[in-house]
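Internal tracking record. Fields below are filled automatically when a chain is submitted to the structure queue. Please do not edit lines marked as system-generated. If the sequence contains nonstandard residues, flag them in the REMARKS field before resubmitting.
Queue: standard
Priority: normal
Entity type: single polypeptide chain
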Amino acid sequence: MSAAPAPRTAPRTTPRPAAPPAWPRPPSCLPAGRLGEPPTGARVAVAGLVLVRQRPGTAKGVVFVTLEDETGTCNVVVWAKVFARFRRAVIAGRLLRVTGRIEREAGITHLIAEIIEDLSPLLDELLRPAPPAEMGPAEAGPVEAGPVEAEPPGTAAMARTPL
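SYSTEM-GENERATED OUTPUT FOLLOWS
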């Protein structure tokens, strides 16, 4: 007596997880030059220096902020409810990180703000002197002096002027 052949079934296919997006996800920041990559509605974070704040009287409490990083600018729309929550950062911040959703209209990309963080204290770190090197004298090796050039007139005074 022979056994009946096992019924043939289709191979089991397990859905694969979608590949992660190619752009940085919050809290990592997306450079302004790459704002064209995520689709409309994608949640991203950007950071930059505040160039412009606008609060037109006809905008019903909406604030428009333009941020700039080393790759370009980003237009941020801050609705009145979000402005009320992050008022201090929007008004006084010099360096902001904004998390929100991408919106595109008529070829212009905006970020609709959800969270606004004031990173301005990080700018003050740029003025602090660098910490001394951690290397000992034996590890550093000999120091060779290169040619010394004369400074143009007036630059010594400029170098001593605090920013």
